[in-house]
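step: validate -> pass
step: tokenize input -> pass
step: predict -> running
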Amino acid sequence: MIGPKGKYAWTATVGEKGQIVIPKQARDIFDIKPGDTLLILGDEERGIAIPPKGAFAELFSVAFQEKDGERD
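step: predict -> pass
step: emit ->
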């Protein structure tokens, strides 16, 4: 499938245990290795997203950012 530069689409089959295999090209592009932990986001209207594994730090930084004047 040819798409805009840097944009990809793959298919994956869900096994009996609910597992999917991430296509090799996707693992290579996003440097996904065995044992990596991935964040799965879901929205009933928009679907499922798997952000890049570096998104953990950014997400937690935003989630736990102190607001002006707030302290524990």
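step: describe -> The radius of gyration is 16 Å.
step: cleanup -> pass
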